[in-house]
Amino acid sequence: MASSYTDLGIEKMATGENAGTWGTKTNTNLDIIEKAIAGYVEQAVTSGGTTQLTITDGDATESTSVARHAVIKLTGTITGNSIVTVPDSVEKVYIVTNGTSGAYTVQFKTASGTGITFGTSEKTTRLVYSDGTNLVDAGFGGSLDMEGRELVLDADGDTTITADTDDQIDIKIAGADDFQFTANTFTAQSGSTIAAQALTATTVTASGIVKTDDTTEATSTTDGSLQTDGGLSVAKDAVIGDDLKLLSDSAVLSFGADSDTTLTHTDGTGLTLNSTNKLLFRDTGLYINSSTDGQLDLVADTEIQIAATTIDINGAIAMDGAITGATNITLSGELDAATLDISGDADIDGTLETDALSIGSTTITTTAAEINLIDGDTARGTTAVADGDGLLVNDAGTMRMTNVTTLKTYFQSGVGVAADDISAGDGAVSLTTSSGDITIDAAANNSDIIFKGTDATSDITMLTLDGSEAGAATFNDKVVATELDISGNCDIDGTTNLDAVDIDGAVQLDATLTIGADDQGYDVILYGDTASANMTWDTSADDLIFNGGAGLIVPDGQFTLGSTAVSSTAAELNLLDGGTSVGSSITLADSDGVVTNDGGTMKTIPASDIKTYVGSAAGAFSIANLDIDGGTDIGEAVVDADLFIVDNGAGGTNRKVAASRLVTYIDANSSAASVGKAIAMAIVFG
Predict the structure, then answer these.
(1) What are the DSSP E strand ranges found in 58-209?
(2) For residue 652, what pLDDT is reported?
(3) Are the CB atoms for 87 and 64 separated by under 8 Å?
(4) What is the pTM of this model?
(5) Which residue, 291, 309, 308, 307, is CA-closest to 299?
């Protein structure tokens, strides 16, 4: 009957089977059981696909029987939701850890059944068991010491509770830190809100300050940082840092212990001060009120001053006194008065009819037509202007008559014009001088000199000379020059393309230095102080070369070949190169290491391997190399149990022989023919 195998791959051997290999197969079965009970393995997960974990019958190889192990850690970087399966028929317990990288789910299940799913951020360990059909989450019961680890609550792994800080519990919802518990304190983190449908207590009393750090503006009775559905009672002063809004129509602002004075809102109209109450200023002698229905009183015990550019009175004015000190009085109707004495100006928008007019006791004789010429009359004459003709000129505020000859002389002597009075022209402009400098002076403090122009119909600023920065020049585009000499610093935000660079001083680079590009390199040479000593990056060979006296010094423990760190010291490496330094003598033990060349690969082997190798074959160790002269004498008589070494068959295998066998041999060969042989043995063995 042939062997059979369990679901875990354990070989069940039939009677009389596997003669000579039964022990090996039993050891394999024990290895399989050990891995199923306590074996640990790491398995890379196929990103976005299915990774099938298998069991190979009668084989304890880890890579081909991952599903047999008790502890499985899933690893690798995944870029999509992934699935890991174990065979359907296996019945066992698994401890599985999601050690993958990437915010994607990992499902762990039987090939045809169901299982568990690690959420996108659930990098935890689960205890599951297979019932031969499905994988079942074992869960946890009773008291559990989380030891500060995170407890995942939802299916996608982004809602958790953790207490990794002493005396503090943190609650994370949807991947964000929302709430925190400490001793006697519950805190909603930034962006979180404590929402309660109702408070069961009729009164909430705070022994300290009730404070909200929220800065939400209040625009109605249902928003803002602090809200109440009822009234608000404040025993002391209320300090409001911004607007106070009474949002209900007919709202009343009351004053006094018995609210005897009120200010009432009338929708669409304004505010009403109740009864005959007064709005006082300074003291009781200055106030505004309505002493009777239909009347508004403005009362002052000395003077009422109205300061405005225009005072518009639409009704009749009854005055018991004179108007004194008035500046401007505008009347939309007629003013009838027996006499009118105006010490200031009179502005009349209508028609002024007068039979005679005198100003400052001087009678005006000018006709209305002549006065109209001053006001811009459009009538034009054709009389040529001659030197004797007169023109009106405002001479520092006094109108005078002067002849045109005087004006001609004035204009010919040159006229200075303010720059801000020069209007735009329609032709080219040249600033030219035959001697001296042309100076453009922005005399105002920190003012700029700006050169503007038009580029493809667009108004642009071509150059700005900043007066607040000692004349720093800002060009709208590139500067074209055959030579540029900069005595200070040069700050270039864009790319600098230079055909050749000669730097005489130190260079500070605060970012990556790149020479060449991918698939196009350039040689880099760093010279030393010694002739021919340099370090060269040879781009044609893609090698870093140390030339001449240049060398490479690496601190202990900082040298890596490939991905393997070299931990040997320089002295240890020199021994491989034939170092002559010999240390003090030691006693070799089987576990001592010896470095040997194993077919081209240097390896460390135990000294016991050499001992085995030396005695592993006949003739492997020359008898000439045995030093019996220096051996310690047995110090006692030879007995039958003592052992000797013999060459079995002269050229055969070296074997041990007891002294009793030698006695038997001598007895059997005690004839006269064997006397010589006995004498020889006596010489050898005493």
Answers:
(1) 71-75, 82-86, 93-98, 106-110, 115-118, 125-130, 135-137, 151-152, 160-162, 168-173, 176-182, 185-188
(2) 62
(3) no
(4) 0.30
(5) 291
